[in-house]
Amino acid sequence: MAITRRGLMMVLSSPSGAGKTTISRRLMEAEPGVTMSVSATTRPRRPGEVDGRDYYFVDPTDFHLMVNRDELLEHAKVFGNYYGTPRGPVEAALKAGRDVLFDIDWQGTQQLQDSAPRDLVSVFVLPPSTRELERRLRSRAQDSDDVVAARMAKAADEISHYPEYQYIILNDDIERSTAAVRAILAAERLKRERLVGLPDFVKGLREGSGG
Ligand code: 5GP
User: Fold this and answer.
1) What's the structural domain count of the chain?
2) Is the pTM of this model over 0.85?
3) Distance from the first to the final alpha carbon of the chain
4) Range of the domain at 143
5) What is the bridge-based pairing of β-strands 99-103 and 34-36?
6) Which of 41, 46, 124, 129 could disulfide-link to 165, CB 3.0 to 4.6 Å?
């Protein structure tokens, strides 16, 4: 017997290079009940990225149309490009009792915090050190030096937003960090307020029809 519950929205934020993409990937492999939100962006596609899987790559005109039609749950400008979360797939997943994982920045998290505080679970991933952060950014070798430098400068700014998050993960070990996120997910799924089917379930137990 399962107790029906509302899906939750789990946000993972961090400066780029802190390892949150790897954690998200591991989480998606391990947790079949989780749907990854695919964002729309005006940023150019990087080698290896697939349209519709990593992002929906759109031009600025289309992006602004989506904003004007209120088709985005949140949106923000990051590193000079626009990013936003399409509303439809998220609402459909939550309604079906699935959980949704978001890889979005602090600006988007603030917007979700304002619009859906009850459903939001926010996690901030910290890199173990500045040196390690820079090493990870450089080893990607997909962005130009200018972009890497700009991202390093932005990292300090992004990190300053950690107090706005409920959970903090220091990512010095991918396995441990993934396990920590899964533990957060497991606990948050049991929150009484999310268990919309609880009154009926308990009623059944008290009436002796709980099996
Ligand atoms: P990247 O260009 O490296 O894929 O992502 C750059 C930053 O944009 C990351 O911090 C990522 O979390 C953020 N981002 C990606 N998609 C969205 C989105 O839909 N909304 C917001 N607010 N930020 C996003």
Assistant:
1) 1
2) yes
3) 8
4) 4-37+97-207
5) parallel
6) 124
